[in-house]
């Protein structure tokens, strides 16, 4: 069976920390979508590590790690990441596998990303500018280069053909970045990529699954950034919900078991786009400070607000979440009262359904339910019973609203700061 773990909000829910914890129970961790736009933070012997393309199971000696076909790989970022992680994890390369069908991010994809964002002006998505959108466009446009291509004799020819196309596209933009400076490092990194264990990911996984191995698929970004169901067009370019696992790894739906969905006890978003429960006041600022809400990939301040149960219930439905994980609960320690959006008022009509359009075209106001805060530090608590009653009341309400039980509560950055609810 393959279990899935994914973010239910706009990313940065704490997936890295939780995968690192759960990896103890799995044989294989597999990334199925996204690319170096992801920044997954975990702590190894007290030291902070941020992973972008490498799965978050690498710090468990027994775990194999697969970068699946649904991921887009920038060889430069991957190589830099490997060089950073190897000293902490000397056998990394023996346990890291890359699908030959994963697509490549080229220097010109990054230039196109930057040019396209700049041209959007105030409507920009707030992309991480890692070349994600243009690389997925070439994938679905049937022009892309894949990891398997780096092993072919005519890789350079294929590269030049695609770059020529990109050069023509870049002509429509002013102020194009000098992407040629990135070409030499790109080809050096391609050489490093050739040395990795490049596999036919879907057969590789099938063999392991038939041998009874336990696999966890690690999501990147969050459900509200899904290209089909997120707050389009302010989304990423892949399917971040559970269905993305099937085409991002080549596994059948019948093989999917548990779906772990992660939510913060509040909500954040980085980049542009609608965010119904955003707090633009001092409470939002206080959340950013208490939660150290700055992007793990770009360092940008994250926008902060209250938990949005309307959006969360939508995400739970889309992925069929079987177990909830609530993170960053300790961040709310000194907030009193706490709010949770339980419905929206859209142009005067109340709804619990996530609307098609939540941009400035509509007048959307969240309807909140207020909860008493717990006014006490909970980061040292390690059993559910020992948590304050008002906190448990908050959790029960969330469970009832979402129709799904909370299986884990995270109350700090450390691997052991996780309360398992049996
Ligand atoms: P990801 O992209 O979902 O892996 O999340 P990020 O790593 O981008 O952001 C989550 C941040 O919250 C990281 O800095 C984590 O170390 C931190 N974090 C995770 N869980 C907790 C928690 O329960 N409490 C606190 N205070 N921080 C947490
Ligand atoms: P993890 O895996 C939070 C956001 C960007 C931007 C939009 C599109 O760490 O949770 P892209 O680079 O894909 O073109 O950006 O999506 N975004 C993320 N926000 N966490 C992430 O990943 C994100 N990856 C992309 O800020 O708004
Ligand atoms: Mg992140």
Describe the secondary structure blueprint for this structure:
Blueprint: E1 2-7, H1 15-22, E2 28-31, E3 40-44, E4 47-51, E5 64-67, E6 72-73, H2 75-85, H3 92-95, E7 96-99, E8 103-104, H4 107-120, H5 132-140, H6 155-170, H7 183-194, E9 197-199, H8 201-210, E10 215-218, H9 243-249, E11 256-264, E12 267-269, H10 282-290, E13 303-305, E14 307-308, H11 309-319, E15 323-327, E16 338-346, E17 349-351, E18 364-371, H12 389-402, E19 406-410, E20 418-420
Parallel strand pairs: 1-10, 1-11, 2-5, 2-10, 5-7, 6-8, 7-9, 11-15, 14-16, 15-19
Antiparallel strand pairs: 3-4, 12-13, 16-17, 16-18, 19-20
The structure holds guanosine-5'-diphosphate, 6-O-phosphoryl inosine monophosphate and magnesium ion (MG).
What gyration radius follows from the Cα positions, in whole Å? Answer: 21 Å
- The overall strand count is 20
Number of distinct helices: 12
Strand neighbour order, sheet with most strands? 9-7-5-2-10-1-11-15-19-20
The bound ligands are: guanosine-5'-diphosphate, 6-O-phosphoryl inosine monophosphate, magnesium ion
Give the CA-CA distance, first to last residue.
21 Å
Gross CATH architecture of the largest domain: 3-Layer(aba) Sandwich
In CATH, the topology of the largest domain is named Adenylosuccinate Synthetase, Chain A, domain 1
Q: How many domains would you count in the coordinates? A: 3
Label the structural class.
Answer: alpha/beta
| Low-pLDDT residue intervals, each spanning 5 or more residues | none
What is the residue-averaged pLDDT? 97
Share of helical residues: 25-40%
The CATH homologous superfamily of the largest domain corresponds to Adenylosuccinate Synthetase, subunit A, domain 1
User: What is the 3D form?
Assistant: globular
Which CATH class of the largest domain is shown? Alpha Beta
Report the biggest beta sheet as strand number plus sense, adding barrel if it closes. 10 strands, mixed
Strand content: 15-25%
């Amino acid at each position: 069976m393959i279990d899935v773990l994914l973010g239910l909000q706009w990313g940065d829910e704490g997936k890295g920390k939780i995968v690192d914890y759960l990896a103890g129970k799995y044989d294989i961790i597999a990334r199925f979508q996204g690319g170096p736009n992801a920044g997954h933070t975990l702590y190894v012997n007290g030291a902070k590590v941020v992973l972008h393309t490498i799965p978050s199971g690498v710090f468990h000696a027994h775990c194999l790690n697969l970068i699946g076909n649904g991921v887009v790989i920038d060889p430069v970022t991957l190589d830099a990441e490997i060089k950073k992680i190897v000293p902490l994890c000397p056998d990394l390369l023996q346990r890291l596998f890359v699908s030959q069908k994963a697509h490549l991010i080229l220097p010109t994809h990054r230039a196109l990303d930057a040019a396209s964002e700049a041209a959007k002006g105030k409507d920009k998505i707030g992309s991480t500018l890692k070349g994600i959108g243009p690389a997925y466009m070439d994938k679905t446009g049937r022009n892309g280069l894949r990891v398997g291509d780096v092993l072919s004799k005519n890789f350079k020819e294929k590269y030049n053909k695609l770059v020529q196309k990109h050069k023509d596209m870049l002509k429509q933009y002013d102020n194009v970045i000098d992407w040629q400076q990135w070409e030499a490092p790109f080809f050096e990194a391609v050489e490093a990529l050739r040395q990795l264990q490049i596999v036919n990911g879907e057969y590789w996984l099938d063999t392991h699954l038939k041998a009874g191995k336990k696999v966890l698929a690690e999501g990147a970004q969050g459900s509200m950034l899904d290209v089909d169901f997120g707050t389009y067009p302010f989304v990423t370019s892949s399917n971040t919900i559970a269905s993305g696992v099937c085409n991002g790894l080549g596994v059948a739906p019948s093989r999917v078991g548990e779906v772990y969905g992660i939510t913060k006890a509040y909500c954040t978003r980085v980049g542009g786009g609608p965010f119904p429960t955003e707090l633009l006041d001092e409470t939002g600022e206080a959340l950013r400070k208490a939660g150290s809400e700055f992007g793990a990939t770009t360092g940008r301040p994250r926008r902060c607000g209250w938990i949005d149960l309307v959006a969360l219930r939508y995400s739970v439905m889309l992925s069929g979440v079987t177990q909830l994980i609530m993170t960053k609960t300790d961040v709310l320690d000194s907030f009193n009262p706490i709010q949770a959006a339980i419905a929206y008022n859209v142009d005067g009509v109340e709804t619990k359904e996530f609307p098609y359009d939540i941009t400035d075209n509509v007048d959307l106001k969240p309807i909140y339910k207020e909860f008493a805060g717990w006014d006490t530090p909970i980061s040292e608590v390690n059993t559910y019973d020992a948590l304050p009653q008002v906190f448990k009341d908050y959790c029960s309400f969330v469970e009832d609203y979402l129709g799904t039980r909370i299986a884990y509560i995270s109350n700090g950055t450390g691997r052991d700061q996780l309360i398992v609810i049996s």
